[in-house]
């Protein structure tokens, strides 16, 4: 699995884990992220059970395992959090932040030791060794209980399935040509995002943030001017096509 440092300033870092060559062929490729601040770290959408061993070996090369105090699951999909039962053994004192709506579902993946901290619909914050990480509501994008994560210090938004694209295993980690990237993500957004109204609410929230990178759970990262290009493109896109 590839590891890429996206941001580093003093003791504050963002690390991406992706493009696992050992994952089963028919398992969709996913991006996992870790925020490190001083002696604490949080794993964002830590992935499915199939990639747990690759994730664990990659993560411990970046931080001591005892520094991982928190997990975050943007919603209940298995590619995001079905590894929970294994993290529960590796991180018995950790806390999982996730939408309150999905606690009863997420517990099916196994959670005997990790503490579940429900995120209210309006969102909230987590102090990671003194720096706030924000949980931004992203409901119905595509899950009815869903959050993005914003780090104002790094100016990074982890958007989950928003911005997701089906990229080739050897594709660049960053979007290099936005127009060529559109076909990789258009159908997914038109089919899996059910509500134009919810889409516009999320875009309005996100436009108020100072963002250098949007990091989705699948495919390339948007940076610089492509952040605005993506938001403009999504704003104009008609979604919920299964009922049209």
From TrEMBL:
Keywords: Hydrolase. Residues 29-218 form the Metallo-beta-lactamase domain. It comes from the Bacteria. SUPFAM superfamilies: Metallo-hydrolase/oxidoreductase. One of its GO terms (molecular function) is hydrolase activity. InterPro entries: Metallo-B-lactamas (IPR001279), ODP_dom (IPR045761), RibonucZ/Hydroxyglut_hydro (IPR036866). The keyword Isomerase does not apply. This is MBL fold metallo-hydrolase. It comes from Vibrio ouci. The lineage of its organism: Bacteria, Pseudomonadati, Pseudomonadota, Gammaproteobacteria, Vibrionales.
């Amino acid at each position: 699995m590839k590891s890429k440092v996206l941001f580093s300033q003093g003791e504050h870092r963002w690390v991406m884990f992706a493009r696992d060559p050992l994952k089963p062929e028919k398992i969709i490729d996913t991006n996992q992220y870790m925020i490190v601040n001083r002696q604490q770290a949080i794993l964002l959408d830590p992935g499915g059970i199939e990639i747990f061993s690759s994730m664990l070996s990659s993560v411990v090369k970046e931080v001591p395992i005892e520094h991982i105090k928190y997990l975050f699951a943007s919603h209940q999909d298995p590619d995001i959090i079905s590894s929970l039962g294994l993290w529960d053994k590796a991180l018995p004192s950790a806390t999982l932040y996730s939408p309150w709506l999905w606690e009863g579902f997420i517990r099916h993946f196994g959670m005997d030791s990790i503490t579940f901290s429900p995120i209210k619909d309006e969102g909230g914050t987590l102090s990671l060794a003194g720096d706030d990480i924000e949980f931004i509501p992203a409901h119905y994008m595509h899950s009815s209980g869903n959050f993005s994560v914003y780090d104002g210090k790094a100016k990074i938004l982890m958007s989950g399935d928003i911005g997701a694209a089906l990229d080739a295993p050897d594709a660049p980690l960053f979007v290099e040509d936005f127009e060529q990237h559109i076909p990789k993500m258009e159908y997914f957004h038109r089919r899996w995002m059910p509500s134009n109204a919810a889409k516009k609410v999320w875009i309005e929230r996100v436009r108020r943030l100072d963002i250098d990178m949007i990091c989705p759970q699948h495919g390339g990262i948007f940076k610089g001017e492509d952040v605005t290009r993506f938001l403009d493109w999504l704003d104009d896109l008609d979604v919920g096509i299964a009922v049209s």
